[in-house]
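Lab notebook: predicted structure, single chain.

Context: the supervisor wants predicted structures on file for every construct in the current expression panel, including those that have not yet been purified. This is the next one on the list. No modifications to the sequence; it matches the entry in the shared construct table.
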Amino acid sequence: QVQLAESGGGSVQAGGSLRLSCVASGRTFSNYVVGWFRQAPGKEREFVVAINWGGITTDYADSVKERFTISRDNGKNTVYLQMNSLKPEDTAVYYCAARFSPKEYGSGLSILPNTYSYWGQGTQVTVSS
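Prediction complete. Output recorded below exactly as produced.
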C-alpha cells in the first residue's frame, strides 16, 4: 500500500503561483510513477502531469505546458507541482496518484486515471479573475 497526502492548495488571483506537494508513505517511493490530476465541479477528472520513477521523464497536458512544473525528491518521498501564471480555468481539486512502475518497466507514464492504484484526498486550488 502507498498512502499519499497533498498539501499546498489555496486561493490566488489570476497570474499568481502555488506549489503543491504530494508526500508518500508505505512502499518504496522510487518504484512509482506519480501523476497529478484535477477535477472541477461538474467535470470529469483530467490529467495534468506525470513524472517517472527517476524524475527524468515527464508528460504534461497541453493546457498546463510552460506554466506548471513537476519534480520529485525520492529521498523525501515527495513530488512537487509548481504552478505559475494561474488562470481561473485552473480552479479544481488537485489529486496526486501513484502507479507501480519501477525502472525496469520503462517510463511507465500514463494519462489515464484508472491506471493509477493509489490516490490522495485532494487539495483545492481556486483562482479568481
